[in-house]
Amino acid sequence: MLGSRINRLAVAGALLSVFAAGCGTHAGSSPPPSDPPEALSSSDPFPVGQLEGNGELAPAPAPSKPSAKPSATVKKVNPGGDTGGQKANTNDGVPNLGSGTFTVAAGGTDLTGSADAGTLVKYRVEMENGIQWGANPVWTTDKLATEVDRAISAPLGWTASAAHPVTYAPNKISGASWKFQRVSGADYSVTLKLATPGTVDKLCKAVGVTTQGIYSCRYGKTILLNLRRWLKGIDGFPAGIDFHAMTVLHEMGHFLGFDHMKCPGSGQVAPVMQTQTIALNGCTPNAFPFTEAGTFVSGPWASS
């Protein structure tokens, strides 16, 4: 009896020693790095998050093996900016400030692109409330959603990747393809918001990006489109270029994982990921990622 009790005590002591050693190991190790903060809800007037300037959505490396789950489409991205030197014409009649809150466009779309494409991107469309349009064309959330849908579903847009998978080594993108669907609920990959210059400036300034009343920015899973750019475009930019499509597809390209690209050569077609509204650098303007022949238009890597 006494022997068995001693044996039990010995076993218990050994277990306590092992447990203590394990605790000591964890206590002395460094905690894993935390993820960057998520963007706040779209109902918050001025959320603080990660964003970049000039209507250029900062990119993230796309997975080499795309997943069909929207939450896994794109990794979180680091903040970045590419604001130019242009100053806003504040006498152009564009309303400067709305309420700072947003309304989500109702409803959604069927799947856009091939069901066989690798990665599903669920996007939401929102517009700032309280905009006093004056003599400007009035944009409603439904009208905005229709325009964004048109750009997303363009034959030469990102959906062409299903037939022509994209490889771009500088961003570690290999054989990638995407399909899209607009939604209005909480399960989304990215949201595109049209906001007044004043609201964009406030949102961007909160994280140190100066948008100068004319540029756009991004944070977290949000793309903010500057109303001044949306209404007025760029002085001197060719009228035949689909400016809205170029803006939406460029920003979506950043979300899909692309940084900026440089002009590949004088007289060649500009990549949609080139900052064409700042400088064409000898390239010809272009609103779409693909040519009619199915070629992905790329150029040398540029920082974002």
TrEMBL record:
Signal sequence range: 1-20
Keyword Phosphoprotein set for record: no
Record's keyword annotation contains Signal: yes
UniProt-listed Pfam families: DUF3152
InterPro entries in UniProt: DUF3152
Region annotation Disordered: where it falls in the sequence: 26-96
Biased segments, Polar residues type: 86-96
Every DUF3152 domain range: 94-282
Keywords, in A-Z order: Signal
Designated name of the protein: Membrane protein
Record organism: Dactylosporangium matsuzakiense
